[in-house]
Write a structure and sequence with these properties.
Radius of gyration: 18 Å
Strand content: 15-25%
Largest sheet: 8 strands, parallel
Number of helices: 10
Number of domains: 1
CATH superfamily: NADP-dependent oxidoreductase domain
Number of strands: 10
Structural class: alpha/beta
Distance between the termini: 28 Å
CATH architecture: Alpha-Beta Barrel
CATH class: Alpha Beta
Strand order of the largest sheet: 3-4-5-6-7-8-9-10
CATH topology: TIM Barrel
Oligomer: single chain
Length: about 270
């Protein structure tokens, strides 16, 4: 597993972590992922999987980077503090390694929310602060409201079929030492492939799918591993695919530790344009 620095912090995170949106796999897939080096587990208040993550990391807490998120509807000062307290309890930890604002909320002044995040860092409940689904302007405003605590990450939708973040969000993050955490890196499973490593038949046969399968054949990997590697091998970007099985978790982790060629990346990017 390859690792990257989380924002401007000293914390190193895996380029492929473990997502838990709609997670139903129990402890074993998460624990296996940690064994393979995918030791960042991302959850959220909204996902209702924090307790499942807490169960999975019991006894291995010191090996895991725990990331969770506060709901966009809970961004008032007191609400943020209460949400963090609840997340700590469900996760059965005494500190959240990365606490993220799940969605911006225009009805709540960002300064009020960031004041609460600053407080959580000051009192030791949170180690690092991140955001999710924030635009460039929203990131600027959030950081200006919390000058003493760096925003280390922005979790966004990003995959071969959803590349619009390359226009502004990803360049801004790179310039400002903000790690991009790509959720749905397999396009909600559409790029996950079947058991033979091919694009699912439901997507039909077209040139886009054929290019992915051709490159997978060249590299000796599955289409899912090609799609994940394309995301996670980029500067300042990590991916957090979700898997409910040990086998798929192992396959996802095997998407790290190697690189596509420049020609292969170019072929993918021409096939799946912004």
């Amino acid at each position: 597993m390859n690792y990257k620095r989380l924002g401007a912090s000293a914390l190193m995170v895996p380029e492929i972590g473990l997502g838990t949106w709609r997670y139903t796999g129990g402890p074993e897939p998460l624990r296996r992922g940690v064994e393979l080096g995918a030791n960042l587990i991302d959850t959220a208040e909204m996902y209702r999987t924090e307790a499942a993550v807490g169960e999975a990391i019991a006894g291995i807490r010191d090996k895991v980077i725990v990331a969770t998120k506060v709901l966009g509807s809970n961004l008032r000062y007191d609400e943020v503090l209460k949400a963090a307290e609840k997340s700590l309890r469900l996760l059965a930890v005494d500190k959240i390694d990365l606490y993220q604002i799940h969605w911006p909320n225009p009805r709540v002044p960002i300064a009020e929310t960031m004041r609460a995040m600053d407080r959580l860092v000051s009192d030791g409940s949170v180690e690092h602060v991140g955001v999710s689904n924030f635009s460039v302007d929203e990131m600027r405003e959030a950081q200006a409201a919390m000058p003493n605590v760096p925003i280390v990450s922005n979790q966004i939708l990003y995959n071969l079929r959803r590349r619009s973040a390359e226009r502004d969000v990803i360049p801004y993050c790179r310039r400002n030492d903000i790690t991009v955490i790509a959720y749905s890196p397999l396009h909600e499973g559409a790029l996950a492939g079947d058991r033979g490593g091919r694009i699912r038949r439901a997507l039909g046969r077209n040139r886009d799918n054929e290019v992915l399968e051709e490159i997978a054949g060249e590299v000796g990997k599955t289409v899912a591993q090609i799609a994940l590697n394309w995301v996670a091998d980029q500067e300042g970007v990590i991916a957090i695919p979700k898997s409910n099985s040990v086998d798929r978790t192992e396959a996802n982790c095997a998407a790290s530790g190697w690189s596509l060629t420049t020609d292969q990346r170019g072929a993918l990017e021409r096939t799946f344009p912004i």
